[in-house]
Specification:
The complex is a heterodimer of chains A (258) and B (361).
Chain A lengths: L1 H27 L16 H6 L3 H34 L4 H11 L2 H15 L6 H25 L4 H8 L4 H29 L3 H6 L7 H9 L5 H24 L3 H5 L1
Helix pairs in contact in A: 1-11, 3-6, 3-8, 3-10, 4-6, 6-8, 7-8, 8-11
Chain B lengths: L3 E10 L2 E11 L4 E5 L6 H9 L6 E6 L2 E2 L10 E4 L11 H11 L4 H14 L15 H13 L5 E5 L7 H18 L2 E6 L2 H7 L2 E6 L2 E6 L1 H6 L4 H6 L4 E10 L4 E5 L3 E5 L10 E6 L5 E3 L9 E12 L3 E8 L4 E7 L14 E6 L5 E4 L1
Parallel strand pairs in B: 3-8, 3-9, 6-7, 7-8
Antiparallel strand pairs in B: 1-2, 1-4, 4-5, 9-10, 11-12, 11-14, 12-13, 14-20, 15-19, 16-17, 16-19, 17-18
Classes of the chains: A mainly alpha (258), B alpha+beta (361).
């Protein structure tokens, strides 16, 4: 009986450790005070203010369009990589595709910066961020697609060919519908990765173009204002929603992320 | 001309020769079976006919035309997979319609033919169901309907009954026979179950290690096995090592070391000194309690060592004087008694001179 009590107590402590900071941010985003010190009263002013902040809106627009584009392209490329890894079991292929997933972000950020500036001589901005986000998302999509294919009866694809479907018709009528959940999950996964990425974006953003996380960072350099709390709360809600949807489409997605 | 001809087919996987110089010819309308233990190359042959794999040597002719280089989707034949391979995201009707849609048939014709095919396999009421809602036997029938719906020249079946339980398997066997007769399409069936092969086929090719050991009608395979492997693989059999003493057109005299002389018959010209085995089916051995009743020349004394009572028949293991054990099968046709003999009973066994088959080594 006692051991059970301690088990619950320990679990509670861990969850508190994980979620209380998040809860504080959410709560203080509704606090009618400039300071994150004491609860004064309920207000949605900070959210209203947020939507009048031109810089913030521009950053949000950047974040959303980059997230949308990068996750779309990463889904297409990642699906191709996943299919290739499944079909041809070249030993080095998974290694090549999945390395960016395991690579420390700071390393990826630095190397992408060097690559864009020294090798491609690219002007940093929207496109450099977009390419960077595609780069680190592909691996995640590939993992999810490959996991989906691995659990599938190989003779399904042979059966389609056998019954008269060309390779393209087989892909369109059988393969694509079967991996669709993985594609949706991969897309949502990439989207959340893109929208809250800070480290890599920080390196490749250059001047002039900011994303939401970069904008938040530059704001808290001054002070953690309730406005930051508000935008963080919105970002949190969006990310959480997408992860929840993603996990519905492919239950192994959450596993793939860790 | 044969419908399907395999000419000197060879397929290697690295150092392994999975199929070695196999030649076969299958007639239109036949129910043909490739039978053999797992790894004998039967599935490899099926995959080469379907076009999923290509032979290293030899060729496959359908209606006299080589299939080399023809992709699976352009071969006028279908496969029923062991796993059924039903498309999980399509309904039963969608699955069955798939091959017709690939042929770009008009919508009205597709609807009519799907309905016909489902009726053929008694699944009209399941048209709107998804595969995961069906039982094993129903999935099997959908796979058959899908394979037959556009009337292929040939239907390949890869252990299609393997995943079913024993009772259902027997039911499906009868259904398969009826179905094949009804549609008149040539079936090439792959199985490792000799019982299934005997029950279903017009002709059977028994395979071992990539080769065809014997290709014959079921009753010929059973009564006239070509060699020790076939004799042993098809049904239960006693194999007695023997040596030819004397041979004529009418009589073959054999000597079994430790047992004595055995009389048999063989039309082939055999020479004294040749070695081989005498293959003897258990049901052709008579078992008697009295020496006088065992009135045949091939007669040996023994003792019931063990038995397996199956209700309609009993399998006896009879230990002879030299310690060898002979299997005999007797119908339990003794009025008032469950079976003829008990464990430990001294018995006499005998068999007709034409009961056994002499197989040269």
């Amino acid at each position: 009986m006692m051991s059970r009590f301690w088990l619950w107590a320990a679990a509670l402590a861990v969850y508190a450790f994980l979620y209380v900071p998040l809860a504080v941010v959410v709560i203080f985003s509704f606090n009618d005070s400039q300071l994150n010190a004491a609860w004064v009263g309920f207000t949605t002013d900070w959210y209203a203010k947020l939507f009048q902040n031109e810089e913030m809106l521009a950053a949000a627009a950047n974040s959303l369009s980059i997230a949308l584009l990068s996750s779309t392209l990463a889904t297409v490329l990642g699906a191709m990589a996943g299919l290739a890894m499944h079909r041809w079991r070249f030993r080095w292929l998974p290694f090549l595709v999945l390395t960016p997933v395991a690579m420390p972000e700071i390393l990826l950020g630095v190397s992408l910066l060097l690559f864009f500036r020294q090798v491609l001589d690219l002007t940093l901005g929207f496109f450099s961020i977009l390419i960077a986000h595609i780069t680190f998302s592909i691996g995640f999509v590939a993992i999810i697609v490959r996991a989906r294919l691995a659990g599938m009866d190989e003779s399904l694809f042979e059966a389609a060919r056998d019954l008269g479907a060309t390779p393209w018709a087989t892909f369109r009528r059988v393969t694509l519908p079967l991996i669709l959940p993985a594609l949706v999950a991969g897309f949502l996964m990439s989207f959340t990765l893109s929208i809250d990425d800070f480290v890599i974006t920080f390196f490749v953003a250059g001047v002039g173009v900011t994303t939401l996380p970069l904008q938040i960072y530059s704001m808290i350099k001054v002070a953690v204002t309730p406005e930051v709390n508000a935008v963080s709360t919105l970002l949190m809600a969006l990310t959480l929603t997408l992860v929840l949807i993603a996990s519905r489409f492919a239950p192994d997605v959450l596993k793939a992320r860790t | 001309m044969a419908l399907l001809e395999l000419k000197n087919l060879t397929r290697r996987f690295g150092a392994l020769e999975a199929v070695k110089d196999v030649s076969l010819s299958i007639e239109a309308g036949e129910f043909f079976t490739l039978l053999g233990p797992s790894g004998c190359g039967k599935t490899t042959i099926l995959r080469m006919i379907a076009g999923f794999d290509a032979p290293d040597e030899g060729e496959i002719l359908l209606d006299g035309v080589s299939l080399a280089g023809v992709p699976p989707e352009r071969r006028p034949l279908h496969t029923v997979f062991q796993s059924y391979a039903l498309f999980p995201h399509m309904t039963v009707a969608g699955n069955v319609a798939f091959p017709l849609e690939m042929m770009k048939r008009p919508r009205e014709e597709i609807r009519r033919r799907v309905a016909e095919a489902l009726e053929l396999v008694h699944l009209s009421d399941k048209a709107a169901s998804f595969p995961h809602e069906l039982s094993g036997g129903q999935k099997q029938r959908v796979a058959l309907a899908r394979g037959l719906v556009n009337k292929p020249r040939l239907l390949l079946l890869d252990e299609p009954l393997g995943a079913l339980d024993a009772k259902l398997r027997v039911e499906m066997q009868s259904e398969l026979i009826a179905l094949q007769r009804e549609v008149g399409i040539t079936f090439v069936f792959v199985t490792h179950s000799q019982q299934e092969a005997l029950a279903l086929s017009h002709r059977i090719a028994v395979m071992r290690d990539g080769r065809i050991e014997q290709c014959d009608e079921p009753d010929k395979l059973y009564t006239q096995p070509a060699n020790r492997f076939v004799a042993d693989f098809i049904g239960k059999i006693n194999l007695i090592d023997v040596e030819v003493i004397a041979a004529s057109k009418l009589r073959l005299n054999l000597k079994a070391p430790g047992l004595g002389e055995i009389e048999a018959v063989d039309a082939r010209p055999l020479r004294p000194g040749e070695r081989g085995v005498l293959a003897l089916r258990p049901e052709l051995i008579r078992v008697h309690g009295h020496k006088e009743s065992a009135d045949l020349k091939n007669r040996f004394a023994g003792r019931i060592k063990g038995l397996l009572y199956l209700g309609d028949v009993t399998h006896y293991q009879i230990e002879l004087a030299d310690g060898r054990v002979i299997a005999a099968l007797l119908p339990n046709a003794a009025p008032g008694r469950a079976k003829f003999h008990e464990v430990g009973d001294p018995v006499w066994i005998c068999w007709r001179h034409d009961a056994g088959v002499f197989l040269r080594d």
